[in-house]
Amino acid sequence: MGEGVQYETQGAIAVITLNNPPVNALGHAVRRGLLESLEKAVADDGTKAVVLIGSGRGFSGGADIREFGKPRPEPLLSEVIGRIEASPKPVIAAVHGMALGGGCELALGCHHRVADASAQMGLPEVKLGLIPGAGGTQRLPRLIGLKPALDMIASGDQVGAARAKQLGLVEEVVDGDLRAAALDFANQVIARAETPPRIRDMTVDASGAEDVLDQARTNAARRMRGLTAPQYCIDSVANAIKLPFDEALEKERGFFAELEGSDQSAALRHLFFAEREAHRIPGVAKDTTTRPIDKAAVIGCGTMGRGIAMSLANGGIPVTVLEVDQSTLNAGLDMIDKTYAGSVSRGSLTEDARNARMALISGAASLTDIADADIVIEAVFEDMDLKKDIFTKLDQAIKQGAILATNTSSLDINEIAAATKRPEDVIGTHFFSPANVMKLIENVRGTMTAADVIATVMKLSRDIGKVGVMVGVCDGFVGNRMLYAYREQAEFLLEEGALPHQVDKVITDFGFPMGPFAMGDLAGLDVGYMVRQHQRKMNPPAYREPYIGDRLAEMGRHGQKTQKGWYLYEAGSRTPVPDPEIEELIVGVSKELGIARRDITDQEILERCVYPLINEGAKILEEGIAIRPSDIDLVWIYGYGFPRGRGGPMFHADAVGTKTIYEAMARLFEAHGALLRPATLLKELAKSGKSFADFQKEATVR
User: Fold this and answer.
1) Is 217 left (phi over 0), alpha (psi -120 to 50) or beta?
2) pLDDT above 90: residue 496
3) Residue 15 in 3-state DSSP?
4) H/E element holding 158?
5) Which of 418, 405, 409 is nearest to 382 (CA)?
6) What does the alpha-carbon distance between residue 180 and residue 201 come to, in Å, rounded to a whole number?
7) What is the pLDDT of residues 546-590, one digit of tens each?
8) Which residues share a beta bridge with 440?
């Protein structure tokens, strides 16, 4: 048989095994092997049924994503699935582990499906800016109904074996040996001597369909703002009701082809590979042995400490939260329980899961109670002296070999590590708020951080469902350092003639969920003010800084928490309302500074905010603070809401063109001064006709 496929017979049953590690991707050789194996089984008079099963980690992770955007040689997956469905001999899919994307579509093309308890089935193509392209939008609604199919396809979410059985996606969930159970099931099918049932011959219950479709479109627009693929998914599923199967299948292929060539899909596929690339760390061998993390501790039971503790518990890791004040500790643990209770009430968590996670979280008031922790994550206020004092005490109290981590957003990891006698065990783990929700962890390696500590923290990030990105030490690391450049220019624009709501609208129209001023109000203007005060104390600014934001904080306008910030907020509302008092303040500051206010176009706002962000990213790459451009993209996608459909700031720069970005920065530099000086790397790429993707490829070779 073809490469990646094994064929054998067990009595009257042919067993076709997908064997293409690591995920049995359905590349060309596997597709050809599947077709040859099926033809052999159909031609063999002694074969009465076929079992299709996967080897290794799962049934199949789907299409080979490396083939996307390129001509695919025949047979296409849709043809293979069509031939399986048309087989006169019943084909039974035996699913364990993953059956995702094309792997799920392959199972849907079979006449029967059985699974073991490990099975996870789904059609996640929408997360790559695509729709299922091998019949998924047509077969799934026919099999399980319109609404459940829409829920799976438009979200890309997976279902486990028990839910798959409940939906009718699989007929049996088996215990023990899946292969043996599938052979037994096949023999039962043979005994019934029935015509193999085909999903394509089923019909979709169309009652209430328009309401279901409209609700799906509304949900998709809210949850996946600005992305095209979810709406295409819904339109294609709608065709399962409106059109004959073959015609709807042809429409599905057309939608897939259109999306495959889109900028959004290219951006989302870039992020798919970026997440995998992020775990390749220079100086850390792939086979580096990681340290076991069986017990964790968190210092501080404030907002960040609670969120970090929940993140660890969500990943199944027992965690002790240390807070010296018992009442503060009790209040914090109670807030964690209430947060989980909220998830239960919304239906996103079961009561059993809530109880299991709460059972993993305990409190302590003394360092001796956490001395045996494998990792301690400090999450106190952003004050260097306080953190150094804590790390000196941790060094003395915590067992040797434990990882000592600090949740800092900007402070020098090396200075914190120097407060201990084991700097090799110290690392930064910058969680983003709310830590139990946000997916990003900016892991910060110090000069002395050991390779196994780096490897362990990167693995831990993945184990608790986060996207870990390794960065180096500088003020603000990657994310906040770039944020400073972005917000600085947004405030300068206010001094020159813009207003907060105008800037925020341009940024949200670009695709961010919030503009810089609404985001500032959400985060708390007092928090940013205190960080800036600390930065000015440690590193006096070399250039003039905007200071309207400082004035607001000093006026007690701290954002949503005080119902006044850059905007006004009605009681109980998070909707920003422009405030005439702020407009008056801004105009007054312009007058104080001797700046003649002018009309500022949306294009200038976009360039002044987004291009300096990219420019700072280029400087970060020059300095080696970020390993690769795609790491910067991950930080901004998962930490700051950069629109996913644009792939992150550095990917977006390539889409616009490094030459265009450089020329705009050179123009802005000439008009506004040194803060907007183009980065050397940006200039070099522009002059040589190269992109940040070229820089990443060259860096990988080096």
Assistant:
1) alpha
2) yes
3) strand
4) strand 158-160
5) 409
6) 29
7) 889 999 999 999 999 999 999 999 998 999 999 999 999 999 999
8) 467
- DSSP class of residue 194 equals P
Which residues lie across from 443 on neighbouring strands? 429, 470
Q: Which residues contact 239 (CB under 8 A, 6 or more apart)?
A: 137, 138, 247, 248, 251, 252
| Cis peptide upstream of residue 244 (ω within 30 degrees of 0) | no
Q: Copy the structure tokens of residue 197.
A: 């049932």
Q: How many CB atoms lie within 10 A of CB 223?
A: 11
- The structure tokens listed for 355 are 């109880």
d(CA 174, CA 312): 31
Residue positions annotated with a catalytic role: 105, 125
Residue 310 to residue 377: CA distance in whole angstroms? 13
The answer to whether the peptide bond before residue 580 is cis (omega within 30 degrees of 0) is: no
Does the pTM surpass 0.70? The reply is yes
Band of residue 596 on the pLDDT scale cut at 50, 70, 90: very high
The candidate with the shortest Cα–Cα distance to 175, out of 121, 119, 106, 103, is 119
Using the 8-state DSSP alphabet, how is residue 678 labeled? P
Say if residues 515 and 504 touch (Cβ distance below 8 Å).
yes
**DSSP β-ladder status, 112-116 and 91-95:** parallel
Check residue 614 and give its pLDDT.
98
Q: Mind spelling out the 3-state secondary structure of 438-500?
A: CCEEEEEECCCCCHHHHHHHHHHHHHCCCEEEEECCCCCCCHHHHHHHHHHHHHHHHHHCCCH
Q: Cα 237–238–242 angle (5° rounding)? A: 125
Q: What is the DSSP code (8-state) at residue 626?
A: B
SS3 assignment, position 251: helix
Structure tokens, 475: 């003020």
SS3 of 633, please? helix
Q: 91-111: per-residue pLDDT in tens?
A: 999 999 999 999 999 999 999
Helix, strand, coil percent content, the chain, rounded in steps of 5: 55, 10, 35
Q: Distance (Å, rounded) from C-alpha 390 to C-alpha 167?
A: 52
Domains and CATH numbers, the chain: 5-260 (3.90.226.10), 296-471 (3.40.50.720), 479-701 (1.10.1040.50)
